[in-house]
Amino acid sequence: MYTKQHYLKRITEEFSKVRFSRASFITNGWDDIVLILDDATVFAFPKDPNEKNHSLQKELRILPLLNTHIHSLKIPNFKYISHDKTFAGYNFLKGIFLSGNLFKSLNEKEKDKVAKQLATFLKELHSFPVAVAKKNGVGLAMRQKDAFVWLKSHIQVIKKKLSKDEQKILEDLENPNFSFTPVVAHQDFGKSNILFDPQKRRLTGIIDFGDIQIADPAGDFARLWFYGEKFIDMIIHYYNSPDKGIKERSRYYSFVSDIHLMYYGVKKKRKDCWIGGYKTFKKFKKYYAYI
Q: Thinking of the domain 4-91, which architecture would CATH place it in?
């Protein structure tokens, strides 16, 4: 990874009219290096500059189209694109992440408003034409049988750190063979990508579409379990889908995402990832202890 000065130099060389006095340098994302200039402009660079099919290429194609389709919340709209399309910038979206503590500070009326905003956004996103998304570089999510192989490989890595009962739950997880109609899905729809205005007490935007895929719509509810089952029920109520299996599928995907976070914690020696994944894993394991 290059230094902060390297990325700033690239920005100023490419966009000479960009002026700023302060730059925040964020390196803890999964795929990107991010610089925020004066809380006014956000620039994203691939962590691996040699990656040819980085998610940014997909975002550059699909986000202009999504911006004409999604009206309920703001999403990134690239204003600066480097000549070789290896980095890009957009106007800073105001708001702070909807953390657990912030969510707990909301009263019931405010939570209801946020649930309705999330549901409205997801309905807009999930109604985007799949054929158009495919044409613009949005790929299909992993097939269920391949996902099951992926899950098993993760379990082999983390199980030695778990109790025997916990190991048994994971080893006995079966391929659920879900049935659903694929949609255009965000695929990383959680607290670190949901922006909230603490003064107006409402959501302001959604960021990071790098993982966007054609997938099960329930996947976009999975990380929202972080806020609790009651809130999930509120969102699903406003989402108002004839698909009655969304809740249970989303719970399963949330459980699997915790396994992945724990796996990442082991492989990358990230104790914070292990702790975060295991904390929610403990909450969800009761739903799968019967397997």
A: 2-Layer Sandwich (3.30)
